[in-house]
Design a protein that fits this description.
348 residues, alpha+beta, Wheat Germ Agglutinin (Isolectin 2), domain 1, 7-stranded mixed beta sheet, 17% strand, Malate/L-lactate_DH-like, oxidoreductase, Mal/L-sulf/L-lact_DH-like_NADP, Malate/lactate dehydrogenase, oxidoreductase activity
């Protein structure tokens, strides 16, 4: 199916896989990254969806990302894994680390993963989803290039530093909490800049420290943390756990993937995996989760609301329809994808 710049999901996935392969990425790794990008795209998280695909390719092509990393996973202690992503694509290193971590957690009940030498790894909730499907509660943290200031400052130091939680259910959509500690994801600012749109006031400051609705000025300035000083405190904690603690870059050491140079980003990730039946039988756990969900859903509605949604539920519903409707590229994105197809001699 192709109509109005809309492509079948599998066709888009094949195209991205072929493009990654043409740039030296092993087939299995290209499948991981393409799946990661489509997870976000189909769930309406477009700031981390296929709009990231072109910059992933460009960074590989200019030598800023290693297309064939030798990912090193070291047993630091029982239930603790240290991972070096060898400057590979973030999703590739994280999926390898997550799979090893789940093996470990099955044996001892819990596993903590600290990863350095990585790159942008897409939507954090993707890894929570993978873990939930295997019966694990998960917490996923990642640092990022400087985007937000310490509270009271006007210069970026912390990344958008997402925090994600995966809470498994038996069959229904898993509960996936995925949020940036900045007021918005930087990807939303990047998309607004690319499309020539203004951003809402209150999202960002320009480089002089004044509020701005210009996305270009926002990218040159700083994003604001969510919840004021509380968001700053959370961002600091993520930067420490995913950067300082694990040996990855932190603060201004983390390179921005849209920059001109080819300096390794050295992004860091921090993951905690716990078996959902670590404290109860799995049957009891699932019963308690559904009772928990039922009580939340039965809370009386505030005016103007028709239903109480769980975190990740709206995105899951969006995914169900998106799989049928396909992936639509706006004019700029279509032109970019067509240029990639021509450059790499593959069919879009």
């Amino acid at each position: 199916m192709q109509a109005n710049n809309t492509y079948e999901v599998n066709a888009m996935k094949r195209f991205m896989e072929q493009a990654f392969s043409a740039c030296g990425v092993p087939v299995a790794d290209g499948q991981i990254v393409s799946d990661n990008l489509l997870y976000a795209e189909l769930r309406g998280i477009k700031s981390h969806g296929i709009s990231r695909f072109p910059i992933y390719l460009r960074r590989i092509q200019k030598g800023a990302v290693n297309p064939q990393p030798k990912i090193a996973i070291e047993q630091r202690a029982l239930g603790i894994l240290g991972v070096d992503g060898d400057n590979g694509l973030g999703a590739v290193g994280m999926v390898h680390a997550l799979n090893r971590g789940m093996e470990q957690a099955r044996q001892v009940g819990i596993c903590v993963i600290g990863m350095k030498g990585s790159n942008h790894f897409g939507a954090s909730g993707y890894y929570c989803q993978l873990a939930a499907e295997q019966g694990f509660v998960s917490i996923v943290l990642t640092d990022a290039p400087p985007a937000t200031p310490p509270w009271g400052g006007k210069e970026a130091y912390f990344g958008t530093n997402p925090i994600a939680f995966g809470l498994p259910r038996a069959e229904k959509p898993h509960i996936i909490v995925d949020l940036a500690t900045s007021l918005v994801a930087r990807g939303k600012i990047i998309r607004a800049a690319a499309q020539g749109e203004e951003i809402p006031k209150g999202w960002a400051l320009d480089k002089e420290g004044f509020a701005t609705t210009d996305p270009q000025a926002a990218l040159a300035g700083v994003l604001l943390p969510m919840a004021g000083a509380k968001g700053y405190a959370l961002s600091l904690a993520v930067e420490h756990l995913a950067g300082v603690l694990v040996g990855a870059g932190f603060g201004k050491e983390v390179a921005w993937q849209y920059g001109e140079g080819n300096k390794p980003a050295n992004v860091g990730h921090f993951v905690i995996l716990v078996k959902a039946d670590a404290f109860l039988t799995m049957e009891t756990y699932h019963k308690r989760v559904e009772h928990f969900v039922e009580e939340i859903k039965q809370i009386p509605l505030a005016p103007g609301y028709q239903e109480i949604k769980l975190p990740g539920e709206r995105e899951w519903e969006q995914e169900q329809s998106s799989v049928v409707q396909g992936v639509t590229l706006d004019e700029d994105m279509l032109a970019t994808f067509q240029a990639i197809a021509q450059e790499l001699n593959i069919k879009l």
